[in-house]
Amino acid sequence: MAYKGMAQIDKKELWTIPNIITYFRVLCIPAYITLMALAGVRANPVLLYIALGVFAVAAASDLVDGWIARRFNMTSGIGMALDPLADKLMHISVLFCLSLCTGLTPLGKATDGLDMLGVATMQASDGWYVHYAFVILLLLKEGIMVCAAPAVMKKGAKVQANWVGKVASFTVSVGVILSFFHPYVGFADWGILSWGVCLSYAAAISYLLDIIKQIRKINRGEMEKVTAESVKTTDSSNNPLPDAEEKTVSYSVEEPADGAKE
After folding, report:
1. Rounded Cα gap, residues 6 and 82, in angstroms
2. Residue 89 covered by a domain
3. How many domains does one find in the chain?
4. If exposure means fewest CB atoms within 10 Å of the residue's CB, which of 43, 50, 168, 258 is most exposed?
């Protein structure tokens, strides 16, 4: 049964394997936040790299749940809404912690074991592994998208990932990982993050334009609202996918002909 006002959400799909993996990814967020906070307060970079390991596992799980959903036709409205939300929470939380847990803690001031380039990098960045401006820009963009999501689903529109969004997410992820090694990469991480932020805004504009187009079509009766079932078999314009029939799994059992019965 779909949630009232949001036809893409079906309670029966809450515990599919891809969605369970997404829940795991969300649960990883407080784990690496705690580790990064301790790393900053104790000026212990080892804890910071353990947090990176947790983040890497969570990021890898995103690839796994996506593959399972496509391979076994487990795409769902819940996954459509929750999966990008989990990605956004991961990026924002890890950048937020890399910023505050270094720029405002003893870890950002620690230069033991660094070469001349590392010391110069940390002095130039004033101890910030990630400048707070990156956090503010991404938080603003993601906040707009998250606030718009319930209204979009209520209207019956469908948000499909596009290549700009995928490239933006990948670029930000690379920048995030490099930021863990900020003293050793000479601001290459900030350059990649800057490009990722620009792509993220371009993707957000693209998504919003596509959503507005869909809502106008729905209001004019040119397009039907997306439902929990149509999410699995239609594109962003709610048109049937070419291979939709091939992905449909049938569980009916054909009765043998009378002559074949013993």
Report:
1. 14
2. yes
3. 1
4. 258
pLDDT in tens, 136-193: 998 898 888 777 777 776 777 766 667 888 888 889 889 999 999 999 998 999 999 9
In three-state secondary structure terms, 228 is coil
Whole-angstrom Cα distance, residue 179 to residue 185?
Answer: 8
User: What whole-number distance in Å separates Cα of residue 169 and Cα of residue 139?
Assistant: 14
How far is Cα 173 from Cα 176, in angstroms, rounded to an integer? 5
- What is the span of the domain harbouring residue 44? 2-109+121-232
| Residue 20: CATH number of its domain | 1.20.120
The torsion region of residue 235 among left (phi > 0), alpha (psi -120 to 50) and beta comes to: beta
Is the pLDDT assigned to residue 99 strictly greater than 60?
yes
Work out the end-to-end distance of the chain between its first and last CA atoms, rounded to an integer number of angstroms.
42
Q: Is 174 within the bounds of a domain?
A: yes
